[in-house]
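[09:14] KT: can someone run the structure on this one? pasting the chain below
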Amino acid sequence: MKTWTKRSFFASVTCAVGGAYWLYEKRRISLDNVGGAARPSEYELKLVQVLFRHGARTPLKSLPGTLQAEWIVDLLQVPPHTKFNYIVKNLIGDPRPPSPLEDHYRAHKLNGGAFHGQLTALGMQQMYNLGERLRDVYIKKSNFLSPVFRSTEVYVRSTNIVRTIESAVCLLAGLFQQQQEGIVTVFTSEAETEVLYPNYKRCDHLKQMTRQRIVQASLLPEIAEDLKEMYKLLEIPEHEHISFIDIWDDMTSRKAHDLARPSCVHYLMKIIEKRAVETVYFAYEPSNSTSLQLCVGQLLSFLISNIENKLKDQDSLENLRKFHLYSVHDTTLMPFLMALDIFDMKWPPYGADVILELYEHRSSKEAFVKVSYLGKDQLVRGCSDIYCPLRDFKKALSSYVIDEVNYEEKCNQPVNAAN
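[09:31] RB: done, structure tokens below
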């Protein structure tokens, strides 16, 4: 067996990717000198929007030729304390729409009987734990929320996939300790109009561009050499089209559940993650505003609109709600973090959360946005303080926000036409 060696960071794009990482480190270190976090009394919290990745799950794809894990259905048993009464509806309150992605996952069973992409008991517990962390901040410490779930306070939306819906429910169980007034409605969208993930079904330009960039990434010398080595170590047939993203997904799922992995993988998880992240970074191409626009531009627009509507002090139910939960995916969080310029070049773990808090200064009435990732405050793009004036926040993200008309126009352009 060949000796695995760590190589340079994308030799052919060292300046682009390595430079981005250096800037992240510089920004992270500089955050220690920012004083905004110590001044909560000056601000009144008005709105909280939480985007979170689902909990641990079964893998999305089995690696051909590789030692398979046993994904038995016992791994999916729901812990009693994570249960919460809920119903799923579309965005206007009609019955839940069909889910082509969920149908795809359930078309074939994994070794052991479970399906692809299912939330496990471990994942349910992770989401419950996240709910308890949010409870500590927004109920126990700040009294921002009632200790019992009320639909007049909390809005819950998820992608139309069972694992994200269940993740939202488990989070609520932890947040409110299974205490609720009435049944929870989890809202979801039809696949054709979903904005909570990069929508390849709707946007052909994004689909073709991402596919091309992933292929190009796999041909970069450093990644190609390491991927070739992984094919040998994992005994993947040469004709199969497997990326580091696929390998990371499968092996991370196994590691989380303490299931069988090829012995060589135990020592290679860091390099597998590194190459998987590099592949995604290259595919999403953060330097190209069009890429991030089509990935998360409408989501950004949606979140900013929620902020602006809250500030209008309207009496509608939508505006009275002050805590919004959005159950999403790693493929949502990565381009979202890139747009905010806080991506740390690490794969978002199961249950990762990004929180956008809207504050109003008690004296000046000026609006501020504060962002945290994985429980830590972040200095986002275009902001000089973690309490970022809303006008600066919007200006910094203006090149990534996109409206419906421009989104449709760019999605229908040939891949080499949009800038």
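[09:33] KT: thanks! The chain is about 40% helix and 15% strand.
[09:34] RB: yep, looked fine to me
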